[in-house]
Amino acid sequence: MQVAIDGPASAGKSTVAKLIAQKLNFIYIDTGAMYRACTIIAQKHGIDYSNEAEILKAVEAEGIEFQTVNNEQRVYVGKQDVSQEIRTPEISANVSQVSALAGIRAKMVDLQRQMAGKMDVVMDGRDIGTTVLPNAQVKIFLIASAYSRAKRRMLDFKERGIKNSQTIEEIEADITARDYKDSHRKISPLRKAASAIEIDTTNMTIAQVVDAILAEIKKSQKKLEKRG
Predict the structure, then answer these.
(1) Residue 195: band (very low, low, confident or very high) from pLDDT cuts 50, 70, 90
(2) Has 88 been labeled as part of a binding site?
(3) How far from 180 is each of 89, 115, 183, CA to CA, in Å?
(4) Is residue 68 predicted with pLDDT exceeding 80?
(5) Is 99 marked as a binding-site residue?
(6) Is 44 annotated as a binding residue?
(7) Which residue range forms the structural domain that includes residue 152?
(8) Rounded to whole angstroms, what are the CA distances from 168 to 125, 154, 213?
(9) Could you say which DSSP state residue 85 is in?
(10) In terms of DSSP bridges, do strands 72-77 and 64-69 run parallel, antiparallel, or are they unpaired?
(11) Does the annotation flag 15 for ligand binding?
(12) Which positions does UniProt annotate for ATP binding (predicted)?
């Protein structure tokens, strides 16, 4: 089974996707982390974020890998754990530009589809239901107000121990700018798939969002059983 969870930055996609995967014993694939890893590779090599050819070369040389360490997914570039670094404000500010590059998207989408073709997966991102897994049995589109997402991001910085000097208003402005970039890019823009179920998480707890998505998955599983 394929579960696609899309939505704008800091809408809670990764948090709920991880929990759902754990509850169902599915594999969780964090596509956003893959694009962030490409961005940090560009940064480390001093490559302009618009230089597709050079970024692709560096990605090929370095390699991107997911590993589970103490029941937590970690992201590695080469042999270095970059799970913390990919969440810093600089990477967040530039990942939209890198992820909009056609060659980068093609490479990452190919990897994502390879993973999804081998196992039951929960995958989250911006274009999972529209581009990466258009035939996913369950498609969810999470939304939330920009201010509530800014609060979540600030809390995430604190929990991860990431140094950040931004105010909540500055984070909100960054998120709004990211929304615009993501929804206006030419390649696989952020948009809700026609068959996706929209859930507004602004005033919901994580547990409530997880329960709502699990209910949709159960409905889909019952339909598949009847067809089977």
Answers:
(1) very high
(2) no
(3) 17, 29, 5
(4) no
(5) no
(6) no
(7) 2-227
(8) 23, 7, 29
(9) G
(10) antiparallel
(11) yes
(12) 7-15
pLDDT value at residue 115:
82
Q: Name the least confident of 71-75, 87-91, 170-174.
A: 71-75
Q: How many domains does the chain have?
A: 1
The span from the CA of 137 to the CA of 171, in Å, is 34
177 is in an annotated binding site: no
Q: Over 80: is that where the pLDDT of 163 sits?
A: yes
- Check whether 183 is labelled as a binding-site residue: no
Q: Quick one: pLDDT at residue 40?
A: 97
Q: Binding residue per annotation — 165?
A: no
Could you tell me what percentage of the chain is helix, strand and coil, using 3-state DSSP and rounding each to the nearest 5? 55, 15, 30
Beta strand ranges found along the chain (DSSP E)? 2-6, 27-30, 64-69, 72-77, 80-81, 121-125, 138-143, 197-200
pLDDT reading at 228 higher than 70: no
> Do you know the residue count of the chain?
228
Residue 60, amino acid: E
According to the annotation, is 7 in a ligand binding site? yes
Tokens of 95: 């990942």
Give me the residues paired with residue 142 across strands: 199
